[in-house]
Amino acid sequence: MSFSWKNIKRRTNLLIGSALVMFVAGMAVFAPLLAPYHPTEDANILYSEEPPCEQFWFGTDIQGRDILSRVIYGSRISLSVGLFTQFMNSVIGIFMGLMAGYFGKWIDDLIMSITNILLSIPTLVFALAVMALMGPGLINVFIALGVTNWSYTCRLTRSQVLSAKRLNYVMAARALGYGKFRIMFNQILPNIMGPILVISTLGVAGAILLEAALSFLGLGVQPPTPSWGGMLAGAREKLFTAPWISIYPGMAIFLTVLGLNLFGDGLRDLLDPHITQQK
Amino acid sequence: MFAFIIRRILQFIPTVIGISFIMFVLLNVLPGSAALMTGGKEILSPEIVKKLEKKWGLDKPFHVRYLNYMVGLAKGDLGTSFIRGDKVRDIIGNRLWPTLKLAVAALAIACFIGIPLGFYSAVKQGTWVDTVTMVGAVSGVSMPQFWSALLLMYLFSVVLRWLPTFGYGNGDLKNLILPAVTLGIGYMALLARTTRAAVVEVLSQDYIRTAHAKGLSVLFINGKHVFRNTMVLILTTIGMQFGSLMGETVVVETVFSWPGIGSLMVDSIFLRDTPVTQGCIMLIIFVFMSVNLSVDILYSVVDPRIRYD
Amino acid sequence: MTELSNRTKRPLLEVDHLHTSFHTFDGVVKAVNDVSFAMNTRETLGIVGESGSGKSVTALSIMRLLKSPPARIEKGRILFDSIDLLEISMSRMRDIRGNRISMIFQEPMTSLNPLFSVGNQMSEMFVRHQGLTRREAWNRSVEMLEKVQIPSPGKRAREFPHHMSGGMRQRVMIAMALACDPEILIADEPTTALDVTIQAQVVDLMMKLRKDYGAAILMITHDLGVIAEIARRVIVMYAGQVVEEADVISIFEEPRHPYTRSLLKSIPKLGDASTHGRKRLQEIKGIVPSLADLPAGCHFYPRCPHADPICRQGEIALEEPAVGHRVRCIRHAGL
What we know:
The complex is a heterotrimer.
Chain A: H1 2-29, H2 31-34, H3 67-103, H4 105-119, H5 123-134, H6 138-146, H7 151-165, H8 168-175, H9 180-216, H10 228-231, H11 244-271, H12 273-277
Helix pairs in contact in A: 1-3, 1-11, 3-4, 3-6, 3-7, 3-9, 3-11, 4-7, 5-6, 7-9, 8-9, 9-11
Chain B: H1 2-28, H2 33-36, H3 46-56, H4 62-74, H5 88-123, H6 128-142, H7 145-159, H8 173-203, H9 206-213, H10 218-255, H11 261-271, H12 274-302
Chain C: H1 4-9, E1 13-24, E2 27-39, E3 44-48, H2 55-63, E4 71-80, E5 83-84, H3 90-96, E6 101-104, H4 118-130, H5 134-147, H6 153-156, H7 166-178, E7 184-188, H8 196-213, E8 216-221, H9 224-230, E9 233-238, E10 241-247, H10 248-253, H11 258-265, E11 319-322, E12 325-327
Parallel strand pairs in C: 3-8, 3-9, 6-7, 7-8
Antiparallel strand pairs in C: 1-2, 1-4, 4-5, 9-10, 10-12, 11-12
Helix pairs in contact in C: 4-5, 5-7, 7-8
């Protein structure tokens, strides 16, 4: 009994996680079909700060826009920022990690000192510095988050490469005279994709939180584009009169990030033979 | 031991130089850009711009400015604010205490709740306490701070009216509670997760089996062997993640109108007051690195395997 | 101590129809399947078997050191000095562990906590079981290190495990196990992880200490050489069962179970044809069956050179063809 419960619980984080992620992805893809109103143009000052009701399920904001519709469209921003920036970080990180791990010597030293420096700068602070230089805006968010957060992926890849290098299949490939890049990309990379996938999933969650924070501070995606973080920017001032403005966009961020984190955790459990074997 | 500490401090220096270089390049890529690009460009006449540039030393070539900046940095001089004309050091100095207070309070909440919770759920693996803690922890790391801030404000200020919504007050404890809890939640959740994983890992080690075979009590084994070995792993996380805590002060201070370094940094970004922005960033990073350095030193105290040579 | 005479009559340790299994995702693994044996005071009993034969699990069951879940002791009794170890509370068990029954493990490299000095970890024994002060305990620990022939024990006690070699650490483990003068010492493959020369030293040390301390030793190993050197009586285990039990001479001179015979044929003998390359060393064909999916009847059937269809019909009982010689094979008489 207890064993099957454990079994179920282990799978549940993966199940709930993927369900949440699929839900948000569906929202993003079918936003125009799902949203009852247009996220930016259907502003009517007469309906300003309406509490949740039959007409506006999540209520309306200061300008009288339907919060539900804006939350639905906001998923597009969050997901695209999360996926795109993590993709960039993964590509940079994997490449750098492969280089450092495979070639070693001064290349390794150089790349490791760069990641050392990058890891000493809190990601949000780094992103803020980039935004300070380039100014707010969606494209700049892509750049700020896409080039600053690859150190973990790089280090993970490097350590995986270092241990893979000692394994038989790489030795065999070397003995067969395969080229360095062929070994790196065709032999090593597919074998270390598991852990990288896990860290990337968690990275998407992190990037979504960062974008939300930047937009909340007013340095990210600019209004009237519906971004979940940005929708909360002026919410504090309305906490007494219109608390619903604060609740739903935050809930959307929370559930999306939660889904990704659960999915990543579940994936890690699945890939980690330590955990799957026992009990 | 002493030599080890000195050596770690010396290793610190190139990283600081590297970081300051990256930040300086980032914020000063376009000559004179930061201050004069937006806010001022239509209002200020070219002559005034020229004068200001000269006053702030922005007319000099990049490497000269970087050198000047680094010389200043070495002397503890972070430059002069574009907007207020005050020394950046003094502006930041006034903001330092609130930020430290906030960070330390959040760290304390995270450590004193997160670590015991993680420990307990690892020891009670599979029970409902474990399940609840771990669901809570994954939720905690998934919450955006500004949202937890708004929820806490709504509950404790608007509904219950127990605590002030925002502001520093006169530095009262009641003003500190909400920001500290907000900042602490994510970190606490993270520590609970890490601690649990670390304890589970340590519990599976052979030396724990040996300890049981010796007839030692569970309490003794957990309190001595498990705790000490777990601390090594937990300390790493505390050090590594302190950076995100420092980064998150920016958001938390802004949402609570807390007069610290983080909110100063956001303000100065909007005002394009580059020297202040730069100073804030350097300070945050410096605090983070100092914490990491202390963790490293503590590490060598806890773990005899760390070699000092 | 009035029952001392009483105690000498009864065996010191009696394992009686022990069943231990692991409940995993893949099903129930019967690691120990109806194992019974007895052990007298000061006796040295050897348990031999391949990995997966259930010999370590038997030892861990006696110590109640198996993690549950997944492990579960389903049935059986373990009587130690008339106490059923499976019935008593965990806190009473902890009073016995390390004090009256102690155990050393296969992995000397990982069996000591890396963060505490060797002396510190040894002192715990004296503080726990004899109520000594830390200072007294430390002095006793240094004495024990000297007994296991560790040079400059006073200095060594302050060192950490990573300063020591594998053999040295195993000596520390032995010293620790003998610290409270136990009645039984369970040694689970104590030499397997060590270099050959160090193995001999450790075995010699254990034989010497057996005389000094008078503890009964349960020596678990897959190394028949170690068994021949140290044990009086031997139990051969296969797939969770005892397949043969006899005194050490009978096991080597007239093994009755086909598995024991194959085991003996698979070790090289000095001066034998196989060591001169003229004859191939015999191996046991096939692999140990999965404990989650055991063959019906005799568990050794798939690998047995004398297999007969009759071997698959029903459980094979442990017979006693000669006094003190037990064997689990229905065809042993005809072989």
